[in-house]
Amino acid sequence: MAYDEMHHKIRLAKYSAYAIALSVCGVLFVVGVMLGSVVIQPQTILAVLWGWLWGDIAPEIPSSVVTIITTIRLPRVLMVALAGAALASSGAAYQGLFRNPLADPYIIGVAAGAGLGAILAVALLGGAILAWYQLPLGAFAGALLVVVIVYVLARQHTGSTSNDLILAGVALGALANALTTFIMMRLGRQLSQLLGFLLGSTGSIGWNAVAILAVSVSVGMALLLVAARDLNVLLLTEEHALFLGIHVKYIRALVITGATLMTATAVAFHGLIGFVGIIVPHSMRLVVGGDHRRLIPLSAIAGAAFLLFADIIARTIQPPQELPVGIITACCGAPFFLWQLLSRRREG
Amino acid sequence: MTHAIQIAHVHVAYGTSTVLHDINCSIAPGEVVVCIGPNGAGKSSLLRAIAGVVPLTHGQIHIHGDAIHALTPAQRAQRVAVVPQQVHMPTGFSVYDVVAMARYVHHPWYAPLRTHDHDIIVDALQRAGVSEFAHKLATQLSGGEQQRVAFARAIAQQPTVLILDESTAHLDLRHQYGIVQTVHQLARAGVTIVAAMHDINLAAVTAQRICLLDGGRLLMCGTPAEVLQAHHLSAVYQTPLQVVGRRDGQVPYFHIAVDGA
C-alpha cells in the first residue's frame, strides 16, 4: 500500500542519514586526534585507543605519543564533539518550542546568559579555587534565567513568535554580553584567558570537563528524547496541543531544562560558539523532516561532526596559532543565517 | 440518561471582560448542535470552554458525567476533539504525520503507533477527503485543504464529542457539503457535534438544534425552524434578513434584504 511504501522510504532516508552522519563524525574524530604539532598516523591512534581501553598498550608505541593522545588530543576532540552535539540538538529543541526556525541558543541569548553566569561564577568564587561544578552551575543558572525571560516575553502574543523572540533574545543577549565584558574588564589579569573563553576556545581541557559535559549531554538528550514526540504537537501552538491531549507545561519544562542544561555546560567549557544550533538542525530538517524524534538525535550527531570540522580548521588554518572555533562557526553560520532571512522574506 | 454535554451556569471572563454569562444547555449523545451569532457573541469562547481549555469563572461543564476541568489533558483529548478556527501546519511534516498526532495521546512517548492506529488514520483521511494529499507536506496545502486536514485529525482522535469552530469557513461548496455529510455520519454513530457557524443557511441544514448567542448570552436554543426566524435574526445581527424559501416547508433560507430586493 502507498502509505507503507512512504514509510519505508522515510525509514530508509532516516537510517542512511544516521549512517552517513555517524561515519563523517567518526572520520573527523580520528582526523581531529591526528592533527596538531605532531601528526599521528590513524593506525597508531586506533592502536593506542584499543590498547588504552583494554589497559594494554603495545610497547613499540613511544610513550610521548600515548601521552599526547590520551591526555591532550582525545579529551579535546571528545569535548568538541560533545559540545557540537549539545548545541545542535538544543537548537533543534528550542526551534520546536518557540516555533521559530531561527531560535538558536546563541540568537535567543541563552548562550550569552550562560556566559554571564559562568563569568560571574569565576568573578565571585575566584578562578583558581573553582570547584568542578561551579562553572557549569553558574552557566546553567544564567542560561535558565535568560530562556525563561525570553519565553515569557515572546509568548505574550499567540501564533508566530518570530519577531518578539528574536528581539527579546537579542536584547537580553546584548545585555548579558555587556555585563560579561564589564566583569572581564574588572578582572583584568585574567583577561586574555577569558577572551579566549568568550570566543570559544577549545584548548586546555581535562578529563573532568569531558566527564561533566558527557553527563549533562546524556541527561539533556534523555529529557529531549522523552519530550520529542509531544514537542511535534507543540509546533501547532500550545492551545492546539492541549486539544490533542498534550501536557503542555510538562513538555515545555522538559525541553527547557534539557536544552538549557546542554547549552550551558557546552558554553561553560567552550565559551560562546554561535550558529551550530541553527545551521545543523536546519540542514537536518531538510533531510529527515520536522519530526523531533528523528531530528534531535540526528542533529546531535551532525552537530558533533560540524564542530569537529570547525575545530580542525581552527587548528590548521594558521599554525602554530589556534583560532577560536567560534570564529569558524560564525564564518559558516552568518551567511547561512542571512540566507535564511532572505529566503523567508521571499516566501512572504 | 447521561447527557453527552451538560453546561450549567457557566461564566467565562478574560481579564475583566466577561465573555459568557450564565450559559445553560444540555446536549444528548449523537446530537448536532450549531451555535450562531454575530462576531464577538461568545461562540468560540463557549466551544473552548467545552473543550476545557479556558477556565470557568463560575459554573460547571460535564462531558458524559465527568467534570471537564477535573480531567487530565490526555483524558480530555480522548473524549473531546476540536477543529480550530485558525489552523497551523508544522514545517517538515506530511499530512499523514499531522493526522497521526491525534493518536499520540493513546500511547506513551516511547511506543510507536500500531496497525490499529494506522487504520484509524487512513479512515480519517478518507472521511475528510484528504487521502490524496497524505504524502504531501502539510504546509504546501491551501487554507481549505489544511482545514480538512485538521478535520481529519479531529476524527482520528475518535472523540465522543467533536467541536467545529468555523471549520467550514475556508471551504468551497463541495467540501462544505462533504463535511456536513461526514458530521451527520459521525452523529449517527453516536458522536455529539457542537459547531459554530457564520453561514445561517449552512447551519440550518447541518443542525438538529441551533443555539443563538449574542453578547455572551444564550438567547435561544431550539430546532432550526424555531430559532431561525427573520425578526429574531435581524435584531441580533442588526441586519435586515429575508426568508426566501423553506426546506421541507419548515426550515427557512435567508438572504440579506438589500434595498429594492
Secondary-structure map with pairings?
The complex is a heterodimer of chains A (348) and B (261).
Chain A: H1 2-34, H2 42-54, H3 63-97, H4 110-125, H5 134-154, H6 162-187, H7 191-198, H8 207-234, H9 238-243, H10 248-270, H11 276-288, H12 292-316, H13 325-347
Chain B: E1 5-14, E2 17-27, E3 32-36, H1 43-51, E4 58-63, E5 66-67, H2 73-79, E6 80-83, H3 95-100, H4 115-127, H5 143-156, E7 161-165, H6 173-188, E8 192-196, H7 200-206, E9 209-214, E10 217-222, H8 224-227, H9 230-237, E11 241-247, E12 251-256
| Secondary structure tally, helices of chain B | 9
Separation, N- and C-terminal Cα atoms of chain B? 48 Å
Strand content of chain B: 25-35%
State the shape of chain B.
globular
Tally the helices of chain A: what do you get?
13
Alpha-beta content class of chain B: alpha/beta
- The backbone outline of chain A, from C-alpha atoms, is globular
Overview of the structural elements:
- The complex is a heterodimer of chains A (348) and B (261).
- Chain A contains 13 helices and no strands.
- Chain A is an all-alpha fold and 348 residues long.
- The longest helix of chain A has 35 residues.
- Chain A starts with a helix and ends with a helix.
- Chain B has 261 residues and is α/β, with parallel strands linked by helices.
- In chain B, 32% of the residues lie in helices and 28% in strands.
- Chain B is built from 9 helices and 12 strands.
- In chain B, the strands form 3 sheets. Chain B has a 6-stranded mixed β-sheet with strand order 6-7-8-3-9-10, sandwiched between helices. A 4-stranded antiparallel β-sheet of chain B has the order 2-1-4-5, with helices on one face. Chain B has a two-stranded antiparallel sheet with strand order 11-12.
- In chain B, strand 1 and strand 2 form a beta hairpin.
- In chain B, helix 4 packs across helix 5.
- Chain B is globular and about 60 Å long.
- In chain B, 45% of the residues are buried.
- The chains are: A mainly alpha (348), B alpha/beta (261).
- The interface between A and B is medium-sized, with 29 and 35 residues.
